[in-house]
DNA sequence: GACCCGTGGCA
DNA sequence: TTGCCAAGGGT
């Protein structure tokens, strides 16, 4: 039996029952694929269910406010996915008469859709034989063929796409694509795969050479920037607080947060009260300041380590442009801010 | 081509 | 505790 045959047989016996596997509606498949980018199935599942209930059609998604969409996306990370999803929904409705693109080439034009996602949608919904290459596929192929070319190098990206494209079952690309990803997720796992029950145990190059644990190779470690955040949580006598929207490019774009004072190192209260930025925010000589978290919160993002302090200030008077604390949940916020609010409010 | 973008699970 | 990595894509 060839690779595709063995793989498909394994898949039909071992696949999970996932909601997006019961439809070929391109809108639903698109939603699921965007949600699952760089995200584990278990983490994305609840978000998929929320989205299809809240936005049953692309028209519902297109006409929603961005805040509503970001609010539903809250906690999932990589928020540009949500902004691009909204942008593309509006494009489909306003410029394509609400009709989802039907070819790989046209699907690829959607913002937030790259080669992987276009291949997934085109194969699952329209039976186009474009091979998907995600983290699972890199791992399966690197091990099966014993390839130590870095998967994130230009050469690697090209090579693995070519290999996947050669292997794909032209008669049923949808099943092949989902099978190889599922195989990578369940059987050919990153750590401690049980090769004794693998259907490829007699043909896998990495198994033969005892290199399963070291493959695939990935080069370049990402540089992590350290930043120091001081959030100023103003509380008015009538239980109102101040939120700002992050408009600049960078992390958490378009999400909300408390007024932020960023410093080059950790600061204490004596340093804080000397800062002009603080007085611009409080609009008064400060009086009632307390630190919420005695030990700074270390919030780790893929490229940044944040050291965060929440400074709570009772303003003693009304706050301009403030919002009722009771309406806090209406605003999309980073999980860091959400966790603070959960604990404090 | 290099760098940026979140969050959570796991060993 | 730390590093890895997850159904990637944009700039």
Automatic annotation (TrEMBL):
Task: Give the EC class as a word.
Answer: hydrolase
CDD domains in alphabetical order:
ENDO3c, NUDIX_DNA_Glycosylase_C-MutY
Q: Which Pfam families match?
A: HHH, HhH-GPD, NUDIX_4
The record's catalysed reaction(s) read: Hydrolyzes free adenine bases from 7,8-dihydro-8-oxoguanine:adenine mismatched double-stranded DNA, leaving an apurinic site
Annotated cofactor note: Binds 1 [4Fe-4S] cluster.
Which keywords has UniProt assigned to this entry?
4Fe-4S, DNA damage, DNA repair, Glycosidase, Hydrolase, Iron, Iron-sulfur, Metal-binding
Q: What InterPro entries does the annotation carry?
A: A/G_AdeGlyc_MutY (IPR005760), DNA_glycosylase (IPR011257), HhH-GPD_domain (IPR003265), HhH_base_excis_C (IPR023170), HhH_motif (IPR000445), MIG/MutY (IPR044298), MutY_C (IPR029119), NUDIX_hydrolase-like_dom_sf (IPR015797)
List the SUPFAM superfamilies hit by this protein, alphabetically. DNA-glycosylase (SSF48150), Nudix (SSF55811)
**Name under which the protein is recorded:** Adenine DNA glycosylase
Which organism does this sequence originate in? Aureibaculum flavum
């Amino acid at each position: 039996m060839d690779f595709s045959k063995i793989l498909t047989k394994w898949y039909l016996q071992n696949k999970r029952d996932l909601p997006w596997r019961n439809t070929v509606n391109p809108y639903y498949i698109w939603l699921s694929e965007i949600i699952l980018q760089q995200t584990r199935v278990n983490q994305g599942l609840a978000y998929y269910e929320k989205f299809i209930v809240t936005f049953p059609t692309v028209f519902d998604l297109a006409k929603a406010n961005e805040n509503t969409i970001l609010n539903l996306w809250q906690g999932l990370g990589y928020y540009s996915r949500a902004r691009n999803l909204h942008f593309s929904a509006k494009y489909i409705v306003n410029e394509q008469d609400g009709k989802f693109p039907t070819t790989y080439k046209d699907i690829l034009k959607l913002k937030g859709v790259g080669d992987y996602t276009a291949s997934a949608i085109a194969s699952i919904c329209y039976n186009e034989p474009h091979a998907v290459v995600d983290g699972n596929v890199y791992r399966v192929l690197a091990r099966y063929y014993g390839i130590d070319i870095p998967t994130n190098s230009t050469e690697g990206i090209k090579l693995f796409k070519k290999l996947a494209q050669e292997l794909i079952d032209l008669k049923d690309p949808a099943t092949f694509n989902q099978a190889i990803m599922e195989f990578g997720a369940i059987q050919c796992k990153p750590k401690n795969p049980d090769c004794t029950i693998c259907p490829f145990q007699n043909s896998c190059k990495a198994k033969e050479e005892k290199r399963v644990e070291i493959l695939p190779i990935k080069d370049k470690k990402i540089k992590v920037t350290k930043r120091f955040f001081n959030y100023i949580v103003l509380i008015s006598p009538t239980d109102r607080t101040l939120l700002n929207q992050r408009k600049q490019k960078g992390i958490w774009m378009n999400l909300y947060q408390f007024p932020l004072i960023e410093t080059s190192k950790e600061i204490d209260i004596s340093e804080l009260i000397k800062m002009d930025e603080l007085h611009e925010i409080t609009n008064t000589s400060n009086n009632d300041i307390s630190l919420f978290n005695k030990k700074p919160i270390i919030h780790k993002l893929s490229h940044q380590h944040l050291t965060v302090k929440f400074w709570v200030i009772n303003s003693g008077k009304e706050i301009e442009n403030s919002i009722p604390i009771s309406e806090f949940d209406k605003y999309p916020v980073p999980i860091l801010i959400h966790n603070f609010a959960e604990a404090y409010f």
